[in-house]
Structure formats: C-alpha cells, structure tokens
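anyone seen this seq b4? input:
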Amino acid sequence: MPGSVTSLAEKFERIRPHLNEASLRLWAANEALSLGYGGVSEVSRATELSRTTIHAGIAELESATVVAEPNRIRRSGGGRKKLTDKDPGLLGALNKLVDPVTRGDPESPLRWTSKSTTKLARELSTSGHPVSQRTVCDLLTGEGYSLQSVRKTREGAQHPDRDAQFQFLNTQVQAAFQAGQPVIIVDKTPIKVRVHDFVDPALGKAAPYGVYDLAANQGWVSVGIDHDTAEFAVESIRRWWRQMGKPIYPKATRLLITADCGGSNGYRVRLWKVALQRFADETRITLQVRHLPPGTSKWNKIEHRMFCHITQNWRGKPLESLAIIVDLIGHTTTEKGLKIRAEIDASSYPKGQTVSDEAMQRVRLKPDAFHGEWNYAILPNAKL
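predicted toks r here
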C-alpha cells in the first residue's frame, strides 16, 4: 500500500471514535480536497468510505451547508449496505452494458468507457438494477475504467473513429502480450506542482518524460533540463530500453509504442519519426506506433498507472533540486508492485529543427490499413 494511503488510514482510525457521521464525512472531504487530483479515490481507499459519501462532503464544504442533526452518531454496524452487496448482479450487468468484448473485459489492458453514466444508470434501472448516476461513476472507477466526457475539449471535437481506434489499440496490445513482445506507453509527465516551472540554479528547467512498461508494471522517467522535443522523447525510450526493457525482453523483435496524438510524440511530428528510425536502426527492432485518437490525451493510461503515483509520492515535499526530483520519482512504489527508475538527461535538445523531405524518405514507414496516420510501423534499415 502506498505510504500516503497508509498514513491516511492511520489518521482516520485515530479520529473515527471522536467524530459523528457528518463530521467524518466532512473530514474525509477536506482530506480529499487537500490532496487535489485523485484525492477522492485515495481517501476512499484509505477509509473505505464510498466516493459518493466523500463527494457529498465536498459539496457541503464548498457550499457551506449546515448539516442537520450535528450530534447524531451512527450506531455500530449501522448505515446502508453496499449496493453491490444488496444487488450481486449489478457489476456484471454494468460491465455487460459498457462492452463485454473489449472495454468490459476485465483482462483488457486499456479499459476505458465514453458511454454516458446517466444513460448507463437509466438502462440499469430499467433492467432491474436501480442505481444513481453517481454510483455508476463510483462502480466504473472501482472496476478500473477511465471515465471521460464526450463533449468537445480544447483538443478538438470527437473523432467519429475514436471508439474504433481504442478497440484496435486494445487488440494490438493483446496480440503483443500473447507474442511476448514489449508494450510501452509514453508521455510527458503532467506534474501539477512546481516541476514545469521549477528551475535549478545550475542546470535549468526540469522536464520529465515517462515510459511505462504495461506488462512488467515498471516505469522510466528521464528528467531533462532542456526542451521537450521529439528527440528527447525518443532518447527517453532509448534509455528505458537499454536499462530496463532489453534485460526483460532480450528476444524482442517488435516494440509496441502507444502515445498521444499531439505534443513532442504526435503523429504529425516529422522529427518523432526520424528519431524513431535511428532507434530502430540501432536496436534492429520493428517499432509499432499506435496513437490515441485526437482529443483523448487524458485517457492515456500512463497517467493512471504511473504519473498519479509519482505526484502523490512528492506531494507536499519541497522540490529544491533535480536530484530531489529524481530521488522522489525513483522511490515511487505501489501495492501492486510498480517500480520506477529515473535519471537526469543533461543533453541539449534545441527547438525548431526542420526535417527535410529527403530525411523523411529515409524513414521506413509502413502505415497500417486502418488509419495509417495513427497506426504505423517503422522498420530497421538494412545494415550498411
């Protein structure tokens, strides 16, 4: 169990006998708000209070609602039973509605749903499983789903083939697993504290880039001190491969890389493909690249499998040097065995590099039949 969850559980057990039902709810809500992103889930795990209860407490805190009967204390063993205890068939029905083949498959490595939780609640109620929209959110989160709105975002409108791309991606990941080939998820670390504008007096700005090995549950983070470019992104993959990937997959012939559609590893970035070609030539490995569809960067599983735990590990700690950042990242673990290694990358990665048509012609790019702009392979060039 992560240290932060353990600490919360200990605090909760100390204060539980002294608070009533309402004040416990408000205490949990306050802790969740202080933790920020992921706080509700973390407090729920530590206290075993439902996410619905914590959300209700947050609403009371934010609206300054006066709780009725402030001195009422729930008797031991009191309170409503979990809905899943009263309705054992609820979770099965919910998973079936989401999608029993891909998205609802418990073994699917990239579980996700974009279906309306309001509609799911309505359909469940109609089929004999009365449930609220908020409870559906809680159940899906507990089942490991990523929940995302179907509304437009700043990243652009919903693409009509978004769902099909996710299903294709899941199929590709499963095929790689069955063949014993490595699968990684990559992205720049979305730190919500001081890292993006943190500047070391001697070395400059810190720019972490992460690589997550989906099968091994291991991660690598390169902490750069220059610009977040495609060359920096590929160098991070290279360092992961040399120090973590190759020892685990010594016979690998392919590497499946899943990445966002934009940023330094975007599908339109020429330098990304040129840099990947150099890596393929060095390793003699075919690189299979699969991009998330446009407008879905928050669905990237590296955020939920690795980055959120890094953020929790250094929450409240002063990030006074690059060495401290690397140390905190490297000491991030979870109860499911996540291991992360981190290293400073002191190399220079200048922005604004132009990739010529001639350079692109040397890239052995093999687009897939389905959305070749998102799904493609980069094959090693013949040895000279």
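Confidence is low (pLDDT under 50) at residues 100-107, 149-156, 191-198. DSSP finds 14 helices and ten strands in the chain. kinda curious what u guys think
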